[in-house]
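lol so apparently i was supposed to do this last week
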Amino acid sequence: MSMVNAFSREDFERLNEAERALIARREKVLGPAYRLFYEKPLHLVRGEGVFLYDTAGERYLDAYNNVASLGHCHPRVVEAITTQTAVLNTHTRYLHEGIVDYAETLTATFPDALSQAMFTCTGSEANDLAVRIARYVTGGAGIIATDLAYHGLTSAVAEFSPSLGESVTLGPHVRTVAAPDSYRHSPEEMMEKFGRDVRAAIADLKRHGIKPAMLITDTIFSSDGIFAGPKGFLKPAVDAIHEAGGLFVADEVQPGFGRTGEAMWGFERHGVAPDMVTIGKPMGNGYPMAGIVLRPEVIADFGPRARYFNTFGGNPIAAAAGKAVLDTIRIEGLQQNALEVGRHLMDGLRSLSHPAIGDVRGSGLFIGVEIVADPAAKRADAALTTRIVNGLRERRILISASGPNANILKIRPPLVFSRENADMLVDALGDVLKSR
Ligand SMILES: Cc1ncc(COP(=O)(O)O)c(C=O)c1O
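anyway here it is w/ pyridoxal-5'-phosphate bound
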């Protein structure tokens, strides 16, 4: 993925000897493809709730990690994983109560039509499987995604993940459309434009003899810059792909599992009916698990003919972790907490009333803050954005940045974030902006 918040070699000399030595060993053995966050990388050794701790025992407020969505090392998930690890770990080719129980609990959180689940280990695999199914069902090959989407790393999925950068070639059957931009367009324009752009992409595919297979969107457009509202803006685009005989795949890897506060799943906020929903990241609160929830009609023919097996996907430990996550979201009221604390945090960010803060947007605990050099012209300020991300890191608060102009602060804390945590973040941001 093109990296907005990354350590660069220029900062190497500013690090202490131990940090330099570990980075050198890491580069030597892991090679050149990996990136580290922050000008001064973090060396973390422990996590608990919303906090992370480094080698010196310093505590950092985590306002970024959406995998440990229930908080780092949540006791209920740790207990579920360790208990099941000590009993049995096999795969989905044996009968096991846990996996069926988990799939039933998971699908019950979806609208009735989305009643079957298939399990993978990563979100990339889930989207990869979604493409295979969509192509099989529709007989088409065309895929429509947004300009800066990230859907994963397999060969098939990288072909429609433009945020990987210009060196990663998009597939010839892929068309991209601009993500809806609530900062620069009115709600009506945004909704109309997105639908129109998807129709134009469908027409272009057909002109090139390519039948559309699917439209895929992250329902909060995370890597495109976080566009949550107004609710319902996805509808015309989803109608367009359905009219063209293609499927709509909602990528809920980032917004899913209650993060948007208003709904368990991001697509529900838009009142649309996906054919497949891909899920992952917070699904096991750190245990690697992902999957697809779909309409039975979509898989009815593909299933018997193509079969499906994934050695680790849906194993009994994953099922135990996933069940503990769903139980915790319900027991601790985390979707409601995301809604309330998210609103409180957005109010706090807006109350800073700083000219560099052009826009505060989001839903629940998925928030984007657009940093601008000139609020009237809405001109992006990527340099200040980098200074803010690193300034907060110096104040031991972790966020990151995204968007086409690298100027959108990405705030995505664990769902157990409290009002007090939110106030810490707002105060620190105010402090960074004052000291710039
Ligand atoms: C929206 C979205 N979809 C899919 C993926 C891929 O998930 P994974 O990294 O588990 O393969 C990501 C990962 O960042 C993502 O953000």
